[in-house]
Design a protein that fits this description.
The chain has 2 domains: 140 residues, Medium-chain alcohol dehydrogenases, catalytic domain (Quinone Oxidoreductase, Chain A, domain 1), CATH 3.90.180; 138 residues, 3-Layer(aba) Sandwich (Rossmann fold). Helices cover 30% and strands 26% of the residues. It is built from 9 helices and 15 strands. The strands form 3 sheets. Strands 3, 4, 5, 6, 7, 14 and 15 form a 7-stranded mixed β-sheet that branches. Strands 10-9-8-11-12-13 form a 6-stranded parallel β-sheet, with helices on both faces. Strands 1-2 form a two-stranded antiparallel sheet. The two termini are 19 Å apart.
Length: 326
Amino acid sequence: MSPFKALVIREKGSPATLETLEPGDLPDGDVLVSVQYSSLNYKDGLAITQTSPVIRKFPMVPGVDLVGTVVESTSSTFQPGQTVIATGWEMGERYWGGYSQMAKVQADWLIPLPDRLTGVEAMAIGTAGLTAMLSIMALEAHGISSDRPILVTGAAGGVGSIAIALLSRLGYPVTASSGRHEIIGDYLHDLGATDVIGRLEPLQPALGSQQWSGAIDTVGGQTLATLLKTITYGGCVANCGLAGGSNLPTTVFPFILRNVSLLGIDSVLCPQEKRLQAWQRLTELLTDDLFELILNAIIPLDHVPTFSKQILAGQVQGRVVVDCNG
Protein backbone atom coordinates (compact mmCIF):
# COMPACT_ATOMS: atom_id res chain seq x y z
CA MET A 1 0.00 0.00 0.00
CA SER A 2 1.29 3.45 -0.95
CA PRO A 3 1.57 6.52 1.28
CA PHE A 4 -1.70 8.39 1.71
CA LYS A 5 -3.04 11.76 2.82
CA ALA A 6 -4.84 12.38 6.11
CA LEU A 7 -5.89 15.35 8.22
CA VAL A 8 -4.04 14.95 11.52
CA ILE A 9 -4.16 16.74 14.89
CA ARG A 10 -0.88 15.87 16.61
CA GLU A 11 -1.49 17.21 20.11
CA LYS A 12 -3.94 19.23 22.17
CA GLY A 13 -4.08 22.80 20.91
CA SER A 14 -2.27 22.10 17.64
CA PRO A 15 -4.00 22.75 14.30
CA ALA A 16 -5.27 20.06 11.96
CA THR A 17 -2.79 19.68 9.11
CA LEU A 18 -2.85 17.62 5.94
CA GLU A 19 -0.03 15.07 6.20
CA THR A 20 1.37 12.23 4.15
CA LEU A 21 1.28 9.03 6.22
CA GLU A 22 2.69 5.55 5.72
CA PRO A 23 0.63 2.34 5.96
CA GLY A 24 2.37 1.49 9.23
CA ASP A 25 0.98 4.65 10.82
CA LEU A 26 -2.57 3.26 10.79
CA PRO A 27 -3.93 1.87 14.05
CA ASP A 28 -5.03 -1.73 14.39
CA GLY A 29 -8.34 -2.79 12.91
CA ASP A 30 -10.16 -5.72 11.30
CA VAL A 31 -10.86 -4.00 8.00
CA LEU A 32 -8.70 -1.75 5.83
CA VAL A 33 -10.84 0.71 3.88
CA SER A 34 -9.90 2.94 0.97
CA VAL A 35 -11.96 5.97 1.98
CA GLN A 36 -13.90 7.78 -0.74
CA TYR A 37 -15.88 10.35 1.23
CA SER A 38 -16.51 11.61 4.73
CA SER A 39 -18.76 14.43 5.93
CA LEU A 40 -18.70 17.50 8.16
CA ASN A 41 -20.79 17.37 11.32
CA TYR A 42 -21.08 19.80 14.23
CA LYS A 43 -19.00 17.40 16.35
CA ASP A 44 -16.30 17.42 13.67
CA GLY A 45 -16.26 21.21 13.88
CA LEU A 46 -15.77 21.01 17.64
CA ALA A 47 -12.95 18.49 17.21
CA ILE A 48 -11.10 20.36 14.45
CA THR A 49 -11.25 23.71 16.25
CA GLN A 50 -10.83 22.04 19.68
CA THR A 51 -13.61 24.27 20.95
CA SER A 52 -14.79 21.35 23.08
CA PRO A 53 -12.79 18.34 24.35
CA VAL A 54 -14.18 15.94 21.75
CA ILE A 55 -10.80 14.33 21.05
CA ARG A 56 -9.81 11.89 23.80
CA LYS A 57 -6.33 10.89 22.59
CA PHE A 58 -3.62 12.22 20.29
CA PRO A 59 -2.52 12.09 17.57
CA MET A 60 -5.99 11.95 16.01
CA VAL A 61 -7.44 11.78 12.53
CA PRO A 62 -10.86 13.43 12.94
CA GLY A 63 -14.03 12.61 11.01
CA VAL A 64 -16.95 10.71 12.53
CA ASP A 65 -18.16 9.30 9.18
CA LEU A 66 -16.70 7.46 6.21
CA VAL A 67 -17.68 5.49 3.14
CA GLY A 68 -15.22 3.50 1.08
CA THR A 69 -14.09 0.22 -0.42
CA VAL A 70 -12.71 -2.70 1.57
CA VAL A 71 -9.08 -3.38 0.64
CA GLU A 72 -8.21 -6.05 3.22
CA SER A 73 -10.29 -7.81 5.87
CA THR A 74 -9.66 -10.36 8.59
CA SER A 75 -13.44 -10.54 9.14
CA SER A 76 -15.63 -13.00 7.27
CA THR A 77 -18.40 -10.39 7.24
CA PHE A 78 -16.72 -8.04 4.76
CA GLN A 79 -14.75 -8.89 1.64
CA PRO A 80 -12.31 -6.87 -0.51
CA GLY A 81 -14.16 -4.80 -3.10
CA GLN A 82 -17.25 -4.30 -0.93
CA THR A 83 -18.40 -0.72 -0.28
CA VAL A 84 -19.08 0.02 3.38
CA ILE A 85 -20.23 2.84 5.68
CA ALA A 86 -19.06 3.66 9.20
CA THR A 87 -20.60 6.37 11.36
CA GLY A 88 -19.94 7.09 15.01
CA TRP A 89 -18.38 4.40 17.20
CA GLU A 90 -16.14 7.15 18.67
CA MET A 91 -14.26 7.61 15.39
CA GLY A 92 -12.55 10.98 15.46
CA GLU A 93 -12.72 10.87 19.28
CA ARG A 94 -10.92 7.76 20.57
CA TYR A 95 -10.22 6.10 17.21
CA TRP A 96 -8.91 7.47 13.93
CA GLY A 97 -11.74 8.66 11.73
CA GLY A 98 -12.71 9.41 8.17
CA TYR A 99 -10.60 12.44 7.20
CA SER A 100 -8.07 10.17 5.55
CA GLN A 101 -7.61 8.35 2.27
CA MET A 102 -7.12 5.07 4.16
CA ALA A 103 -8.65 3.85 7.42
CA LYS A 104 -8.52 0.75 9.59
CA VAL A 105 -11.74 0.07 11.49
CA GLN A 106 -13.43 -2.71 13.42
CA ALA A 107 -15.79 -4.89 11.40
CA ASP A 108 -18.54 -4.36 13.98
CA TRP A 109 -18.62 -0.67 13.08
CA LEU A 110 -19.42 -1.26 9.43
CA ILE A 111 -22.60 -1.71 7.44
CA PRO A 112 -22.81 -2.39 3.70
CA LEU A 113 -23.62 0.59 1.50
CA PRO A 114 -27.32 0.24 0.60
CA ASP A 115 -27.74 -0.63 -3.09
CA ARG A 116 -29.66 2.53 -3.95
CA LEU A 117 -27.12 4.98 -2.51
CA THR A 118 -23.94 6.42 -3.97
CA GLY A 119 -21.00 7.25 -1.73
CA VAL A 120 -21.79 10.97 -1.91
CA GLU A 121 -25.43 10.33 -0.95
CA ALA A 122 -24.37 8.11 1.95
CA MET A 123 -22.24 10.92 3.36
CA ALA A 124 -24.90 13.54 2.61
CA ILE A 125 -26.86 11.43 5.09
CA GLY A 126 -24.01 10.46 7.44
CA THR A 127 -24.26 10.90 11.18
CA ALA A 128 -26.66 13.84 10.74
CA GLY A 129 -29.18 11.80 8.78
CA LEU A 130 -28.83 8.79 11.05
CA THR A 131 -29.44 11.02 14.08
CA ALA A 132 -32.50 12.58 12.43
CA MET A 133 -33.96 9.16 11.64
CA LEU A 134 -33.26 7.82 15.12
CA SER A 135 -35.00 10.88 16.55
CA ILE A 136 -38.07 10.24 14.42
CA MET A 137 -38.09 6.56 15.38
CA ALA A 138 -38.04 7.61 19.05
CA LEU A 139 -40.97 9.98 18.50
CA GLU A 140 -42.88 7.23 16.69
CA ALA A 141 -42.21 4.73 19.47
CA HIS A 142 -43.63 7.28 21.92
CA GLY A 143 -46.78 7.52 19.81
CA ILE A 144 -46.39 11.04 18.47
CA SER A 145 -49.55 12.75 17.21
CA SER A 146 -49.94 14.68 13.95
CA ASP A 147 -52.77 16.80 15.38
CA ARG A 148 -50.37 19.68 15.89
CA PRO A 149 -47.03 20.49 14.24
CA ILE A 150 -43.74 18.89 15.14
CA LEU A 151 -41.07 21.52 15.78
CA VAL A 152 -37.52 21.11 14.50
CA THR A 153 -34.93 23.45 16.07
CA GLY A 154 -31.61 24.30 14.44
CA ALA A 155 -33.55 23.64 11.26
CA ALA A 156 -30.91 24.77 8.76
CA GLY A 157 -28.21 22.39 10.03
CA GLY A 158 -27.59 18.85 8.84
CA VAL A 159 -29.78 17.06 11.39
CA GLY A 160 -32.51 19.71 11.17
CA SER A 161 -32.61 19.76 7.37
CA ILE A 162 -32.89 16.00 7.05
CA ALA A 163 -35.40 15.76 9.92
CA ILE A 164 -37.70 18.24 8.17
CA ALA A 165 -37.50 16.31 4.91
CA LEU A 166 -38.17 12.98 6.61
CA LEU A 167 -41.05 14.20 8.78
CA SER A 168 -42.68 15.85 5.77
CA ARG A 169 -42.38 12.66 3.72
CA LEU A 170 -44.00 10.76 6.59
CA GLY A 171 -46.98 13.12 6.53
CA TYR A 172 -46.35 15.21 9.64
CA PRO A 173 -46.92 18.98 9.72
CA VAL A 174 -43.50 20.50 10.47
CA THR A 175 -42.52 23.88 11.89
CA ALA A 176 -38.88 24.82 11.31
CA SER A 177 -37.12 27.05 13.85
CA SER A 178 -33.94 28.85 12.81
CA GLY A 179 -32.09 32.03 13.69
CA ARG A 180 -31.64 32.55 9.95
CA HIS A 181 -35.28 31.96 9.06
CA GLU A 182 -35.67 35.23 7.16
CA ILE A 183 -32.72 34.36 4.90
CA ILE A 184 -33.31 30.65 4.31
CA GLY A 185 -37.07 30.38 4.67
CA ASP A 186 -37.50 29.23 1.06
CA TYR A 187 -34.97 26.43 1.62
CA LEU A 188 -36.83 25.19 4.70
CA HIS A 189 -40.19 25.32 2.92
CA ASP A 190 -38.69 23.40 -0.01
CA LEU A 191 -37.58 20.69 2.42
CA GLY A 192 -41.19 20.33 3.55
CA ALA A 193 -41.70 22.73 6.45
CA THR A 194 -45.27 24.01 6.60
CA ASP A 195 -44.22 26.95 8.76
CA VAL A 196 -40.90 28.69 9.47
CA ILE A 197 -40.18 30.69 12.64
CA GLY A 198 -37.20 32.26 14.39
CA ARG A 199 -35.38 31.00 17.47
CA LEU A 200 -37.47 30.24 20.53
CA GLU A 201 -37.21 33.05 23.03
CA PRO A 202 -36.87 32.45 26.80
CA LEU A 203 -40.24 31.94 28.46
CA GLN A 204 -40.54 33.14 32.06
CA PRO A 205 -43.68 31.26 33.23
CA ALA A 206 -43.23 27.65 34.30
CA LEU A 207 -45.50 26.60 31.41
CA GLY A 208 -46.52 28.25 28.15
CA SER A 209 -49.29 27.61 25.67
CA GLN A 210 -49.37 24.11 24.19
CA GLN A 211 -48.14 24.46 20.60
CA TRP A 212 -46.25 21.37 19.45
CA SER A 213 -47.18 17.70 19.59
CA GLY A 214 -43.49 16.89 19.65
CA ALA A 215 -40.09 18.16 18.61
CA ILE A 216 -36.63 17.26 17.43
CA ASP A 217 -34.18 19.55 19.21
CA THR A 218 -30.59 19.98 18.05
CA VAL A 219 -29.90 23.10 20.13
CA GLY A 220 -30.31 22.30 23.83
CA GLY A 221 -29.83 25.03 26.44
CA GLN A 222 -32.47 27.74 26.75
CA THR A 223 -34.14 26.66 23.49
CA LEU A 224 -34.86 23.22 24.90
CA ALA A 225 -36.10 24.74 28.17
CA THR A 226 -38.62 26.90 26.28
CA LEU A 227 -39.58 24.01 24.06
CA LEU A 228 -40.45 21.75 26.99
CA LYS A 229 -42.84 24.41 28.29
CA THR A 230 -44.78 24.52 25.02
CA ILE A 231 -45.21 20.82 24.18
CA THR A 232 -48.79 19.54 24.28
CA TYR A 233 -50.00 17.19 27.01
CA GLY A 234 -48.43 13.75 26.55
CA GLY A 235 -46.05 14.97 23.88
CA CYS A 236 -42.32 14.42 23.68
CA VAL A 237 -39.03 16.00 22.64
CA ALA A 238 -36.15 14.07 21.09
CA ASN A 239 -32.95 15.93 21.98
CA CYS A 240 -29.82 15.17 19.99
CA GLY A 241 -27.64 18.26 20.20
CA LEU A 242 -26.19 21.13 22.22
CA ALA A 243 -25.40 23.87 19.71
CA GLY A 244 -27.05 26.33 22.11
CA GLY A 245 -25.43 25.01 25.28
CA SER A 246 -25.32 21.94 27.50
CA ASN A 247 -27.14 23.39 30.52
CA LEU A 248 -30.89 22.92 30.84
CA PRO A 249 -32.52 25.71 32.89
CA THR A 250 -35.96 24.20 33.46
CA THR A 251 -38.35 22.88 36.09
CA VAL A 252 -40.16 19.59 36.54
CA PHE A 253 -43.54 21.14 35.66
CA PRO A 254 -43.66 20.05 32.00
CA PHE A 255 -43.03 16.49 33.14
CA ILE A 256 -45.39 16.25 36.10
CA LEU A 257 -48.21 18.53 34.94
CA ARG A 258 -48.27 17.80 31.20
CA ASN A 259 -46.78 14.33 31.06
CA VAL A 260 -44.10 15.53 28.65
CA SER A 261 -41.24 13.15 27.84
CA LEU A 262 -37.66 14.10 27.04
CA LEU A 263 -35.95 11.46 24.90
CA GLY A 264 -32.18 11.37 24.55
CA ILE A 265 -30.82 10.39 21.13
CA ASP A 266 -27.33 8.93 20.66
CA SER A 267 -26.09 7.85 17.25
CA VAL A 268 -22.50 7.10 18.30
CA LEU A 269 -23.00 3.77 20.10
CA CYS A 270 -26.42 2.98 18.65
CA PRO A 271 -26.88 -0.82 18.37
CA GLN A 272 -26.28 -2.24 14.91
CA GLU A 273 -29.80 -3.62 14.48
CA LYS A 274 -31.33 -0.17 15.02
CA ARG A 275 -28.71 1.40 12.70
CA LEU A 276 -29.63 -0.97 9.89
CA GLN A 277 -33.31 -0.23 10.38
CA ALA A 278 -32.64 3.51 10.30
CA TRP A 279 -30.48 3.30 7.17
CA GLN A 280 -33.14 1.23 5.42
CA ARG A 281 -35.78 3.86 6.14
CA LEU A 282 -33.45 6.69 5.10
CA THR A 283 -32.83 4.93 1.80
CA GLU A 284 -36.55 4.59 1.19
CA LEU A 285 -37.55 8.13 2.17
CA LEU A 286 -34.77 10.34 0.76
CA THR A 287 -35.14 10.89 -2.97
CA ASP A 288 -32.87 12.56 -5.54
CA ASP A 289 -34.62 15.92 -5.29
CA LEU A 290 -34.08 16.00 -1.52
CA PHE A 291 -30.40 15.13 -1.88
CA GLU A 292 -30.04 18.07 -4.26
CA LEU A 293 -31.57 20.37 -1.65
CA ILE A 294 -29.66 19.02 1.35
CA LEU A 295 -26.18 18.77 -0.20
CA ASN A 296 -24.46 22.12 0.32
CA ALA A 297 -20.97 21.41 -0.99
CA ILE A 298 -18.35 18.75 -1.68
CA ILE A 299 -14.97 19.90 -0.35
CA PRO A 300 -11.41 18.47 -0.28
CA LEU A 301 -9.68 17.51 2.95
CA ASP A 302 -7.69 20.73 3.19
CA HIS A 303 -10.91 22.80 3.25
CA VAL A 304 -12.24 21.05 6.37
CA PRO A 305 -10.66 23.46 8.93
CA THR A 306 -12.27 26.50 7.26
CA PHE A 307 -15.68 24.88 7.02
CA SER A 308 -15.36 23.68 10.63
CA LYS A 309 -15.29 27.27 11.82
CA GLN A 310 -18.29 28.06 9.62
CA ILE A 311 -20.41 25.18 10.91
CA LEU A 312 -19.81 26.26 14.53
CA ALA A 313 -20.80 29.81 13.59
CA GLY A 314 -24.09 28.55 12.18
CA GLN A 315 -23.10 29.53 8.64
CA VAL A 316 -23.42 26.10 7.02
CA GLN A 317 -26.78 25.17 5.52
CA GLY A 318 -27.56 21.49 4.99
CA ARG A 319 -24.78 18.98 4.51
CA VAL A 320 -21.12 19.22 3.51
CA VAL A 321 -19.47 16.09 2.05
CA VAL A 322 -15.69 15.71 2.21
CA ASP A 323 -13.94 14.21 -0.85
CA CYS A 324 -10.95 12.46 0.70
CA ASN A 325 -9.26 12.12 -2.69
CA GLY A 326 -10.12 15.57 -4.04
